[in-house]
Specification:
By secondary structure, this protein is of the alpha+beta class. It has eleven helices and 18 strands. It is globular, with a radius of gyration of 21 Å. The relative contact order is 0.16.
């Protein structure tokens, strides 16, 4: 079993040639994946009962597989039901569902058995085509709601909790990897059909653009990270941004487009501009095989001072597409002294992650082995914005109400 530490969310494309399926033993492969999660996953206590139930439900499915590809497909469904975007299995292929939340551009909530869109990612295909919060989802790629949920989860809907159903439908809304989608919704008592580009298209376009965007709005500086917290160029571009915006009266730090996470090598120098001394921005405990996180000592992640020092009020924008290191930066800026964090609950990508090569299935599992905490002791996944909005990206009319609220907060003083 080979272990590789990784600081980004996931590889968006992971292809692998499978080994000789004549040698594949599904029972041994299943036992390996279960034992690996039990010994290495620092978040198992969050889903302990679900894990036991799902292990029982999926064991027979896994043991019925005859090839490594079939086994990986079943195991991917199994892991999705644990509702942790960081917990995943590769290799991935073009028939797999999106990596969530990177491949997502629509967020929905359940009200009874109905699915209502509550947020649409700014500048995504869904947004450009006119999909808006408040719409009632009717079908996705020709599948009714319960059919879409079952396709993602691998289980009948009666066996799923409402949280598991909600998680599955949000993956289904992103569709298959790199494939266009057909979405039918009900709005104003009429059914509308939207043909949407593959949800990865808009996120991939960011690679050829600036890592950090910035502008001045009514004497307030606005800085947005473009899914770039894994790129060292973001450190340079952020410094350029704050130098250009030096004379503004306040700053808005927009982390709403960071679904793929990043690494501390990018985050910490950026956080360092907000402090004059070495400052703790996040705490963590590490789980190792045979040494569970709750027995481990707290450790501290710190940011060292960087020039120029930002000596002005600032607020943070976060939401459904704030993921992994984006979440770490959000709680770090909150601890360092943000006037407010504005938006919706974040993506809940759990923990600092590592990748483990599974010898018995020629697959790689990614899981959280570090349990992460706000400096005040809260689990990172329990943190919520100080000003909570239902739609953190765009509202029913397509407006950016989080940005408007941030400007209101910073100009109130």
């Amino acid at each position: 079993m080979k272990i590789t530490l990784t600081l980004t969310l996931l590889l968006l494309v992971t292809f692998s040639s499978y080994s000789n399926d004549d040698e594949f033993n599904s029972e041994i492969a299943w036992d390996e994946i279960i034992s690996t999660i039990q010994s290495e996953y620092a978040y198992l206590d969050r889903v302990d009962e679900d894990f036991k139930t799902l292990t029982s439900l999926f064991r027979s499915k896994a043991l019925a597989t005859r090839t490594e590809k079939e086994f990986v497909d079943i195991s991917q469904s199994f892991l999705r039901n644990l509702q942790d975007p960081h917990l995943s299995l590769s290799p991935l292929d073009y028939d797999d569902y999106i990596v969530y939340p990177t491949g997502s551009d629509i967020y929905a909530e359940m009200k009874g058995k109905e699915i209502y869109i509550t947020d649409v990612k700014a500048n995504s295909s869904a947004y450009v085509e006119g999909v808006r919060s408040g719409m009632l989802v009717q079908s996705i790629d020709g599948l009714l709601i319960h059919e879409a949920i079952e396709a993602v989860s691998g289980l009948s809907i009666e066996k799923l909790s409402q949280d598991q159903q909600r998680y599955a439908i949000n993956i289904a809304l992103g569709g298959k990897r790199y494939k266009s989608r057909i979405l039918k919704v009900l709005i104003d008592e009429s059914v509308r059909t939207y043909k949407l580009a593959a949800s990865y298209d808009s996120i991939n376009k960011l690679k050829s653009g600036p890592k950090v965007s910035y502008k001045e709005i009514n004497d307030i500086g606005y800085i947005r990270f473009n899914n770039s917290l894994g790129d060292n160029g973001s450190v340079i571009e952020f410094q350029q941004a704050i130098e250009v915006l030096a004379q503004t009266k306040g700053l808005i730090i927009d982390l709403r487009n960071t679904p793929s996470g990043g690494n501390t090598g990018v985050a910490e120098p950026i956080l360092g501009h907000f402090t004059k001394t070495e400052t703790v921005y996040q705490r963590y405990k590490t789980q190792e095989s045979g040494h569970y996180y709750y027995d481990a000592l707290y450790q501290q992640a710190t940011a060292l001072p960087q020039k120029p020092f930002i000596n002005k009020p600032f607020v943070v924008l976060a939401g459904r597409w704030t993921g992994s290191m984006g979440e770490g930066m959000t709680i770090g800026l909150d601890a360092i002294g943000a006037q407010a964090v504005i938006g919706a609950p974040m993506a809940d990508l759990l923990g600092g992650i590592k990748q483990i090569q599974l010898d018995k299935s020629n697959a790689t599992i990614t899981l959280g082995f570090e349990r992460l905490y706000h400096v005040d002791g809260r689990f990172r996944e329990d943190f919520e914005p100080t000003i909570v909005l239902k739609s953190a990206d765009t509202d029913e009319k397509g407006n950016d109400i989080a940005l408007l609220k941030a400007l209101e907060v910073l100009t109130a003083n």
